[in-house]
Task: structure prediction
Amino acid sequence: MSELLSFQQVCDRVPMGIVILTGEYRVVYWNRWLEQKTGVPAAQATGKTLKELYPDFENKRFVWAMENVLNNHSPQVMSQSLNHFLIPIPINNRGRHGLSLMQQHVQIAPVPVPQGSILAMVSIQDVTENVIRSSAYTELAQKLMEDSSRDPLTGVYNRRFMWDWLLPQLKLISRAKTPLACLMIDIDHFKKINDQFGHAVGDKVLVSFVGVVNYCLRESDVFVRYGGEEFAAFLPGNDLKGGVNAAERILNTINTSCLASFDAGRITCSIGVSSWDYNDPCTGEDLLKTADKHLYKAKNNGRNQVVPVIV
Amino acid sequence: MNLTEMQTDALKEIMNIGVSKSATQLSTLLIDEIRLEVPEVNILTPAEVNNALFINNVLSAKGEESIVYQELTGMLAGRAYLIFRGEDSKFLSQAVLGNAFSHAGEKLQFYEQEAVMEIGNIIISSCIASIANTLKDKITLSTPVYTEDSLPQILSKMANDMVVLVVKTALCASKRDITGTLVIVITSDMVDSVISKLSRFCDFKEKDAP
Amino acid sequence: MKKILVVDDSATSRLLFRMHFPKEYPATIEEANSYDSAIARAGEIRPDIIFLDYNMPGKNGIDVARTLIGSGSSAKFILFSANLQQGVLDDAQALGFTKIIEKPITKEKIVSALKVITP
Result:
């Protein structure tokens, strides 16, 4: 039976786009699916390059892939994730998902023909629905993840997130050979504030304290509510000296800021600093332990200070 | 299976050209700077490969890697595997797709797999083309396949007469390390023919140099 | 007679360079296989033209040029590499490289580079 089927009969019934190009990038075949989706009839497409059909067609990746197909007979994949689409095909329903062009998964295969020449068969799969579905899924997953990784009162990261972040981060920086500073920050006499003014005021102090510290940190730093009135901050790219400098900046800013309804200077904090160094690596637990030890020392030395002191 | 120093050097340079060309392409595709290491090249038996890859930290302890492979026919008949080291494939897709995907679960999502497949396809085709073009022969590739599997298990299922050409190189996209290791599995008689082609290539060079 | 220094960690690549170098071009060719040996050799022979590989263990070809230019070398620099990322091209152009050649090396490519230097 199969010998009764023509190439065209089959290709015109395949639910995907098939275009065959010559070594000069000219269309020799344009299947029915493409006619329907693009509105360009085969008769019009034949003999033209994609650039002639779509004047904005400028695609270095496609040219490289085609060279590999034509010169090395090596099939190439152009993923939707990295390329989005090859042929611009407008789609409806933009409001629902924000996409205006069909998302495509593209494969290019060499097709040897008699006389030793070679053609490139470009197959185009419509993956728009997959993209919409997976981006909705990712958004949802992201939202859930965000919620369960943040402290509901202050909005900064919680301990659960900290461990999820810290371990891969240590692996990353041990390969990149960059340092990481860790700050343990504790609000001085917080229990007294709570006892004297009530928890509502205590909460306000926490929220404004977080606001001030966040202002002192960079976007790449990770700020965590470690528990109660204790916070941890991780400063990628900073060694111990950088960490201590940042800690002093935080301490001074807290000292000169009004927190909740308190005058500047009423609320202070103590900070212990440690650092992860490529030449002397340690575990995440040890990094936090050292910072905590320094924090304890700062408390014992009279609070409102940073330990260690670097001159 | 031993290569002479000159043959090793030639093979290294062939792979270096292949990997560098793919880096040029990846850099355009990912809009990122790709840093390269000079590749290391070895011809090993399947058993030796597992050891070598463990020592080199290519294989993860959890025993599953992100692998892209393509079938080879022609001058080299066998399979070319590109192994992305354990978590590195995650870093890779993060580098590519942005942080939105960083906590989206243990397994790679479909679109991440798709991106990894394209990247693997670029590296494998560049390296294979460099071998074929330098040694003036033909190697045909199948379309790429993405799989999450254990390389030691794949290799343990291989016949005893197979040998493995291992090309270890690291491609680092900006601040994220991606270690891709190319493992080409071929029959030993194929290796003989590659070595003889390489030695002809090396002889030819030495004769013609002034 | 031009003095040429070829810097490449690959012996194959250096050999290919010699093999494809046009015999009629009046030049002596010296070799170095690393950043350190390139700096040392350049100091000794004061080359007119330096062909640099990009991807070498440790420091790359651009680093070699940067150091030599910093120490007052007046040599013409030519990069030969298969790694033609925009960043690499930008670095080479910023340092005033005369020509960038895509590997693999062929006779035509060497000739075209030499033409830029001595038209």
User: Anything to note?
Assistant: Residues 5-205 of chain B form a domain with the Chemotaxis protein chec fold (CATH 3.40.1550.10).
